[in-house]
């Protein structure tokens, strides 16, 4: 009998040690899918080694990159798990009159300016191109993730994101919540001026009838339904003898639903979500790169204000803010949006002002909130609020409960009567406090952006979605997951619907969750 070849012993020993190491790594990691791929490939290496020892040609099997798309089967003793359980969303397939047909006539959507240029790129608007050094200095334009996004396009952006939601289902019985892709904001905006209330309410009335006839509606009478609008909640609350807005949220059907809007009006079934910003990244790497950029930037001005005076608006403090800013001798930067040439729809100009300022003043405008709040946070600028209804009682899903962590609050009364010097007050805040607040502001950035929908991803970048029934959580292959404003909103809606279902099972009164009584204290 021939003695064993020493070299073969070494190979066998090394293989055994390497196998133990791989098993340890699989046990250590909680991403089975990834480790299964490693295990499969390692097994093939072992096979090839064994084959080589018998002078056979190796036969390395590919894992999931085969042209037929077949995956290697996991061990039979492992149960497959549905990682979308409790996260499924069903989207109603509405007739096009409730969404696409509305925006086809984009010229009629707003009386005061043309919305058509902003409809491109799935509602993100025209892409910001790097046409000079200033653009590249202010933004990270090489990523292709900056767009001239209009604040009213949220419903379009949200719908496009939902089309690519990893847990979207066509089986409503699986759904934890049901999304209604109705462009309510554009429906009302095209009829706000020059139309009577009958015309203004007509399409919403048709939609209510359409929903009533659906089996998905009858299950909970709409309490698991939600929709999104790019206008403030007040535009849908013409519940009394008034002229402004529609009566959408006063109807029996929609009073049972949950509305997500850019500003809430203190009813219990309304929730505020961020205005769209100009930044729509597709990877966490992009977000982190931008966060580092705004952390390092040198800020020339102590504070700034971007906006226009409101001389005809009773109680507006903008006039006093502008007065103090202009008297600051360059400590404050004022971009007057009423002056010709100060294009306040230009992302580069807006972000340049915010990035060069330590604090950004955010007084109320036509309503409590402003899109500027989110643009300034995106720039790493610490927001200064003058009314709690501008942020603290609005975006509770997105901002820290302790508002002192990320912002400064100056009561309106002190500014109105001239007893508060904004320059002196902000100047007394120490560098350590400023640094701490800025870190918190920068941490908020991923939560208040809407990432790029699938349809506007570059054509040469292949993005694969892992199937829902897998052995790891769904994620974009090759891309890091960002929990953005969309994801947070969907998650919170699902939590709300689950709570309502529990209340119904326990026989509790749902009045507190769908009250038609406005609680103004929520905005104070």
From TrEMBL:
Locations listed in the record: Golgi apparatus membrane
Protein's membrane topology: Single-pass type II membrane protein
Residues annotated as domain Exostosin GT47: 84-422
Main subcellular location of this protein, as a coarse class: Golgi
Chain positions covered by the region annotation Disordered: 55-77
Family in the record: Belongs to the glycosyltransferase 47 family.
Cellular component, GO annotation: Golgi membrane
Keywords: Glycosyltransferase, Golgi apparatus, Signal-anchor, Transferase, Transmembrane
Protein species of origin: Eruca vesicaria subsp. sativa (Garden rocket)
Ranges of Polar residues composition bias in the record: 55-67
PANTHER family: EXOSTOSIN HEPARAN SULFATE GLYCOSYLTRANSFERASE -RELATED, XYLOGLUCAN GALACTOSYLTRANSFERASE GT12-RELATED
GO molecular function: glycosyltransferase activity
Name of this protein: Exostosin GT47 domain-containing protein
């Amino acid at each position: 009998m021939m003695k064993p070849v020493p070299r073969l012993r070494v190979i066998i020993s090394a293989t055994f040690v390497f196998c133990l190491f791989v098993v340890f790594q699989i046990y250590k990691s909680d991403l089975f899918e990834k480790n299964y791929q490693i295990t499969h490939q390692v097994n093939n290496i072992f096979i090839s080694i064994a084959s080589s020892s018998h002078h056979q040609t190796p036969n390395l099997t590919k894992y999931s990159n085969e042209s037929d798309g077949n995956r290697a089967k996991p061990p039979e003793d492992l149960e497959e798990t549905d990682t979308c359980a409790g996260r499924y969303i069903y989207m109603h397939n509405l007739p096009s009159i409730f969404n696409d047909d509305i925006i086809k006539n984009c010229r009629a959507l707003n009386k005061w300016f043309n919305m058509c240029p902003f409809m491109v790129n799935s509602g993100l608007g025209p892409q910001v191109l790097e046409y000079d050094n200033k653009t590249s200095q202010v933004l990270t334009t090489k990523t292709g993730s900056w767009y001239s996004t209009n604040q009213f396009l949220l419903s379009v952006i949200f719908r496009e994101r939902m089309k690519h939601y990893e847990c979207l289902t066509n089986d409503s019985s699986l759904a934890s919540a049901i999304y209604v892709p109705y462009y309510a904001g554009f429906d009302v905006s095209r009829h706000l001026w020059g139309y009577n209330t009958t015309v203004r309410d007509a399409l919403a009335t048709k939609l209510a009838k359409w929903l009533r006839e659906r089996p998905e509606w009858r299950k909970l009478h709409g309490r698991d339904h939600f929709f999104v609008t790019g206008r403030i909640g007040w535009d849908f609350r013409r519940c009394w003898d008034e002229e402004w807005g529609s009566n959408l949220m006063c109807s029996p059907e929609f009073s049972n639903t949950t509305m997500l809007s850019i500003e809430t009006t203190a009813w219990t079934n309304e929730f505020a979500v961020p205005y769209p910003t100009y930044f729509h990244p597709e990877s966490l790497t992009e977000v982190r790169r931008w966060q580092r950029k705004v952390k390092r930037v040198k800020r020339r001005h102590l504070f700034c204000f971007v906006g226009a005076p409101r001389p005809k608006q009773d109680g507006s403090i903008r006039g006093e803010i502008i007065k103090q800013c202009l008297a600051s001798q360059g400590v404050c930067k004022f971009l007057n949006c009423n002056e010709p040439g100060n294009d306040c729809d230009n992302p580069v100009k807006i972000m340049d002002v915010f990035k060069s300022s330590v604090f950004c003043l955010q007084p109320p405008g036509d309503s409590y909130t402003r899109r500027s709040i989110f643009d300034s946070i995106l720039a790493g600028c610490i927001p200064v609020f003058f009314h709690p209804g501008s942020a603290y009682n609005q975006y509770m899903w997105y901002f820290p409960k302790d508002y002192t962590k990320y912002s400064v609050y100056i009561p309106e009364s002190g500014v109105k009567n001239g007893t508060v010097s904004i320059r002196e007050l902000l100047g007394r805040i120490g560098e350590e406090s400023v640094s701490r607040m800025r870190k918190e502001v920068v941490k908020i950035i991923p939560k208040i952006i809407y990432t790029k929908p699938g349809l506007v991803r570059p054509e040469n970048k292949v993005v694969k979605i892992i199937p829902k029934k897998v052995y790891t959580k769904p994620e974009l292959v090759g891309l890091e997951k960002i929990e953005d404003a969309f994801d947070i909103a969907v998650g919170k809606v699902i939590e709300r619907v689950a709570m309502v279902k529990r209340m119904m099972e326990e026989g509790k009164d749902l009045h507190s969750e769908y009250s038609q009584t406005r609680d103004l204290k929520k905005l104070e």
